[in-house]
UniProtKB/TrEMBL annotation:
InterPro entries: Peptidase_S1_PA, Peptidase_S1_PA_chymotrypsin, Peptidase_S1A, Ser/Thr_Proteases_Immune/Dev, Trypsin_dom
Matches recorded under Pfam families: Trypsin (PF00089)
GO biological process assignments: proteolysis
Superkingdom classification of source: Eukaryota
Family the UniProt entry places it in: Belongs to the peptidase S1 family. CLIP subfamily.
Protein name: Peptidase S1 domain-containing protein
Residues covered by the Peptidase S1 domain: 39-280
Signal peptide boundaries: 1-15
SMART domains per record: Tryp_SPc
């Protein structure tokens, strides 16, 4: 498993880390395909138009830091990717209400997570990846206290029980994140997004034969106009229905950004009951 991490001095305080100054670095485990993903060729969003977006900063030992995405699904629960919290993990900070993630904004709410309050899916096998990935790449972080819900911080809408069997094929899915707009470039300061249409898992398997596509996976076409790309795992994937934006997926570990390859997501429908059992 390759993980996007960056070296920090041990004395750095997570809540005030200058994210604009960090450089890309990879966890040394030998993997040739999978990488953390960021929004490639994405466009800046209207400030605070995605109020459920979370930024997540992890610190590990020896001193390294990972930068990830997530979504607020209850005032105390953040949905994320399980592989973001690899061992040895020493601290986790969740940032809500950010538009410029590299700055301290009045709209932001920051939380230090108790490591015992990171709930990874029980079937996530961090050392047994299928072609360097795991189909149960989902986790919930429990905040120490409830986030203040306001115009900058709001809860994502998840699919209902009536939508549990929906495949969303053909719908326009939007992915948001704080990552590099292009491979090799520096971090973006602001929240960005990109949109592509959902395709069937059968079509995805044909196009993305390096992986086994599971029922709990979801794919979107890659038309070259933008995709998730190196480094923003855990970020939300949403569709717009009847004026309501619904989160249907999570950016997991997947293929490197490469025009022509589909985007691969964790399908939230497959984990609705687990989410309901573990969110608070």
């Amino acid at each position: 498993m390759k993980v996007l991490i960056i070296f920090l001095l041990p004395s750095v305080v997570l809540a005030y880390t200058d994210w604009s100054s960090v450089d890309q670095f990879y966890h040394p485990k030998d993997v040739s395909i999978a990488r953390e993903r960021r929004i490639h060729l994405g466009q800046p969003v209207t400030p605070h138009s995605i109020p459920y977006q979370a930024g997540i900063l992890t610190e590990h030992s020896p001193p390294t830091v990972g930068r990830w995405g997530g979504s607020l699904i209850t005032p105390r629960s953040v949905l994320a990717s399980a592989h973001s919290f690899f061992s040895p993990l020493t601290s986790v900070t969740v940032i809500l209400g950010a538009h410029y993630i590299t700055k301290i904004e009045p709209s932001q709410q920051r939380f230090t997570i108790d490591l015992s309050q990171i709930i990874r899916h029980p079937d996530f096998l961090s050392d047994e990846f299928n072609h360097n990935r795991n189909p149960n790449d989902i986790a919930i972080l429990i905040l120490p206290q409830a986030a203040v819900i306001n115009e900058f911080v709001q809860v994502a809408v998840l699919p209902t029980g009536a939508q549990i069997d929906e495949l969303f094929i053909g719908e326009l899915a939007t992915v948001s994140g704080f990552g590099r707009p292009n491979p090799g470039e520096g971090w973006t300061d602001d929240l960005r997004s990109t949109s592509n249409h959902i395709i069937s898992n059968e079509e995805c398997q044909r196009l993305l034969s390096i992986f086994t596509i599971h029922d709990s996976d979801m794919c979107a076409e890659n038309t070259g106009r933008g995709s998730s790309c190196s480094g923003d795992c855990g970020s939300p994937v949403t569709i717009l229905r009847n004026g309501v934006r619904i989160q249907i997926g999570i950016v997991p570990m997947g293929p490197p950004c490469n025009e022509g390859w589909p985007d691969l997501f964790t399908r939230i429908n497959s984990f609705l009951f687990w989410i309901l059992e573990n969110a608070v």
